[in-house]
Amino acid sequence: MYGSFGNGQRACVGRPFAWQESILAIALILKHFNIEFVDPSYDLRIQETLTMKPGGFKIRVRPRQHLGIALNVNVKQSEKIPEKLKQQVKTENLRPMSILFGGNSGSCQTFADILV
């Protein structure tokens, strides 16, 4: 990736933006999908064409389960937690607990809402 943006005084000013966009894209993929190797015993083989890449590397991608909550963070609070996700818990002898969250992407709040 560095070669395509150049170096020194004439380096592309868009490199930080491209890195940020690629990190966000990878984060969204990891947030919404379970990723696993097709062949768990895969050993890295470098394949060189115009760029370097892992030769024969294959992955299996599956949507994460129960993401209906996280995919739409603008839903009313009463609609966020489906009944099928709630479990009956005996509440006697339990002490109060605070669940705090931070972040601006909505996933922390969604996870906190699931815990509540």
Describe this structure in words.
The protein has 116 residues and is α+β, with helices and mostly antiparallel strands. It has a domain at 65-116. Helix content is 34%, strand content 14%. It has 5 helices and 4 strands. It has helices at 2-5, 15-32, 68-71, 77-80, 107-115, and strands at residues 33-37, 46-48, 52-54, 59-63. It has a two-stranded antiparallel sheet with strand order 1-4. A two-stranded antiparallel ribbon has the order 2-3. The longest helix has 18 residues, at 15-32. The chain is flat and about 65 Å long.
Features:
alpha+beta; 116 residues; two-stranded antiparallel ribbon; 14% strand; 4 strands
Overall pLDDT metric: 79
The biggest sheet, with number of strands, parallel, antiparallel or mixed sense and barrel status, is: 2 strands, antiparallel
Counting DSSP E segments of at least 2 residues, the number of strands comes to 4
Question: What's the shape?
Answer: flat
Could you give the distance between the termini?
Answer: 43 Å
Helix tally equals 5
Coarse structural class = alpha+beta
Low-confidence stretches: none
With strands numbered from the N-terminus, the spatial order across the biggest sheet is 1-4
**Oligomeric state of shown chains:** single chain
Helix content: 25-40%
Order of helices and strands: HHEEEEHHH
Rounded radius of gyration (Å): 21 Å
GO molecular function, one term: monooxygenase activity
Family: Belongs to the cytochrome P450 family.
Keywords: Heme, Iron, Metal-binding, Monooxygenase, Oxidoreductase
InterPro entries: Cyt_P450, Cyt_P450_CS, Cyt_P450_sf
